[in-house]
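I hope you will forgive my troubling you with a question about protein structure. I set the record out below, with my sincere thanks for your time.
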Amino acid sequence: MKKHKRLGLLALTLFFALPAAAQLGEERHNFAVGINGGLNMSSVSFNPRIKQSTQNTMSAGLTLRYMSEKYFKMMCGVQMEINYSQRGWKEKIEDESGNSYNRTMNYLEIPFMAHLAFGKDSQNRGMKVFFNAGPQVGLFLGDNEKINWNNASTRPEHGKAIENKFDYGITAGAGLELSTGIGHFSLEGRYYMGLSDFYKNSKKDYFERSAHSFIGIRLGYLIDITK
């Protein structure tokens, strides 16, 4: 198993061990649903390396959250999302050729995360700090490729079709949530590290690695269904 995959699996194991260790506190049965949306600052980890600038894309979707336990000041639960998410990359051209290339890739993504919160209980009004982490899977829906290339020959990735449509990796984030009488408002910073490649990576293929990563900024709104 490659090093980045081993580190990803270790991080997931450690994070999910925390809620399991907290099953000695007060039970909760708080279920909330809502929406989320924000910005992805995307890039792709290529080997051989491709110089890139940040590709700014969007994300929006549905959030489902269940809080099951309170242990001293820590509230434990799980959060799942169903998102339409754009990713991709923009190539960094350092000469004066006027060349440009960027690709926006559209995914249906589903993160399933442990959710840990500290501060005011979700049943009460006030502010709390939270952490999310867990696995994420995605399905490639389509892409938009923009090429402005004056040279006679283009690069191997230009015009190359996506070969692996199933994506998976790990995601983690932290943020603030304000609970009010009309719902829960949140602001989160999130990071995604892809563990899969969207181009084939056998010895006969050009790319050994082609995995997504992005830093995301998310705004969320949740309403309680059960308390």
In short: The longest helix spans residues 3-21. The mean pLDDT is 88.
